[in-house]
Design goal:
By secondary structure, this protein is α/β, with parallel strands linked by helices. The chain has 17 helices and twelve strands. Helix 12 links the parallel strand 7 and strand 8.
Length: 382
């Protein structure tokens, strides 16, 4: 049913495009003969992990083209705080799908007259990318998996006139930076980056005071949840790990979203020591500010872990079915822990699994508490 609704939504937008095609042709011709005015609009993912991995493009575009006007198009307000202090972004455009048609058309006309020449589309198979046609952007870049079905590829080739193919095993931020090659032949920096607001820093400072956080102890963040259960380590192991860390290392912060409350409460039922439960209490930018003050962040292949990486926090990522080469470059500050099983990897950025095909999640089950604890000791002793 959900798939059918998505198709109906795409058909509706294509009908609008065909109605507006004469205007599109005139505007396109005007732009193509007047040359590039270097106005660029980016349509980022609405998945937090992918969104964070796309943050390098903001910096690299501005450094390559300092005079360009860079806009970011959002369909969810929760990401606005993450980039409102980003010095590389000139404008954030918010599109509310619940607005009435008249308001949408008014915003559409307003965007058309901003005269964008380039659009970078990071939402494959999404109705949002269709909007770039309504904005009359002549040069449109899309990321597409070679394994996508024929219908998806055909739609993507209508929406975009510059296709960049995503190959298994490629580091995701490197793929997201490939549109830069159209503008400049340069070497780019794939470092994730977030700028933290002063208000978020103050919020975390006050939170530390409220909970009487001991400044002589290590601060450790633990995020045991993921939006995909296939990526999750056993809850009882997290509970035992928290007990071990609290007895030896210090201040433990439990991190999660509103939807993670039940899982995290079940984990904390098995915890005997002290901790600060921040589940559902932080915005994304407040989470970034917290991570900046942590000595270590322990998490899964999920958005919060990438937020921690983006603010240069030491991270230890428990890797399950994902091909880790696509989501993290292991280093002194970003460590991974994984098991070696014959069926790994089986999940990729463009082909994410929702269930273990063998049923037992062996890749995660074989990661012991001792493995994670030992890695934690090693990182914190550096």
């Amino acid at each position: 049913m959900q798939s059918r609704n998505k198709i109906k939504e795409k058909v509706k937008w294509l009908k609008w495009f065909l109605l507006l095609f004469p205007i599109y042709s005139i505007v396109y011709f005007k732009k193509s003969i007047s040359g590039s005015n270097r106005r660029i609009i980016i349509f980022p993912s609405n998945m937090i992990g992918d969104f964070i991995m796309q943050t390098p493009i903001f910096r690299e575009i501005k450094e390559a083209l300092p005079k360009c006007h860079l806009s970011v198009f959002l369909t969810t307000n929760k990401f606005a705080d993450l980039i409102k202090n980003n010095k590389y972004i000139d404008e954030i455009i918010k599109w509310n799908i619940n607005d009435d048609l008249l308001l949408k058309l008014k915003k559409l006309v307003d965007i058309i007259f901003r005269n964008y020449s380039f659009a970078i589309l990071y939402r494959p198979e999404s109705w949002v990318d269709l909007l770039s046609l309504f904005f009359f952007v002549p040069y449109r870049f899309s990321i597409l998996s070679k394994s996508s079905d024929g219908i998806s590829q055909a739609i993507r080739k209508i929406i975009s006139n510059n296709i960049i193919y995503y190959r298994k095993g490629e580091y995701a931020p490197d793929v997201y930076l490939k549109p830069l090659k159209f503008f400049e032949d340069l070497k780019y920096n794939n470092k994730l980056e977030l700028q933290i607001s002063n208000s978020s820093k103050t919020f975390i400072e006050n939170l530390f005071k409220e909970h009487n956080i001991n400044s002589n102890k290590n601060n450790i963040g633990i995020a045991p949840a993921s939006s995909k259960s296939i990526k999750m380590w056993e809850p009882q192991k997290f509970a035992q790990l928290i007990n071990l860390l609290d007895n030896e290392f210090g201040n433990i912060f439990i991190i999660g979203g509103q939807n993670d409350r039940e899982l995290i409460n079940n984990i904390l039922n098995g915890v005997t020591g002290d901790y600060v439960n921040l589940c559902g209490q932080l915005t994304l930018i407040q989470l970034a500010a917290l991570c900046k003050k942590l000595d270590l962040f322990i998490g899964l292949d999920s958005g919060p872990t990438y937020i921690a990486q983006a603010v240069d926090c030491n991270t230890l990522t428990i890797i399950g079915p994902t091909d880790y080469k696509e989501v993290i470059i292991p280093s002194q500050t970003n460590k991974i822990i994984r098991s070696t099983v014959e069926c790994h990897p089986c999940s990729y950025v463009t082909e994410a699994r929702t269930k273990c095909k063998r049923g037992a999640k062996k890749c995660l089950h074989l990661i012991s508490i001792e493995d994670v604890y030992s890695q934690t000791q090693s990182i914190l002793s550096q």
